[in-house]
Amino acid sequence: MDPIYRALIVCTNHADYPTKLQKTGLWLSEATHFYDELAGRNLPYDIASPLGGTIPIDERSIERRDTINEKWYHDPTFRSKLDNSLKLDDINPSNYQILYFTGGHGTMWDFPDNLALQRLTQQVYESGGMVAAVCHGVSALLNVMLSDGSLLIDNRQVTGFSNMEEKLVRLDEEVPFSLEDALRQKKALYSKGLIPFLPYIEVDERLVTGQNPLSARKVGRKVLEEMYEK
After folding, report:
1. Looking at residue 217, which CATH number applies to its domain?
2. 31: CB partners within 8 A, 6+ apart
3. What is the pTM of this model?
């Protein structure tokens, strides 16, 4: 019998840009495509956010013709978990062996400095669990410190939304900082795919990161491979 692992999918609560009228939030496919991989193994899961409650969804991510988005966004259980997310402060890390940070630009505001998020990541990782993140969700890892005082991403192979991609979506003036630059400043070994917006992931032991929305499924697949096939 395969062991049953439980996953925690963490999403942003932040919906506003400094100057643009359009709203940000979760980039929907970064949750649905990852979860679609877990669903294939019937893995139990919860959805959490820094404040708990409703997860705002970036409107541009719903408009796309995406059968996986359709499938899970209209699934009553998944939708209920999105609308009633757990608060990070209330999470018991020992319940989870897989921790996954979704992206969407909102994460750049409420992930990097959240202490509950940092504690949770440290404890799941140090208990032998998998930590994964995609796109702007990788910002969650910037300030995670391990028990020995070192940064989780120090000298680790990671990826995340690139400067070029930020420029191409014309949001480089809106974000509070450059994710690519911040990862490099924290001494992470940052890399990216040759062509923007195509799937690209990095794996460094129990740390799996994806560069952009199209990388979410690949991240999910790799997490399961590491958990079940090693």
Report:
1. 3.40.50.880
2. 9, 11, 47, 72, 82, 102, 216
3. 0.97
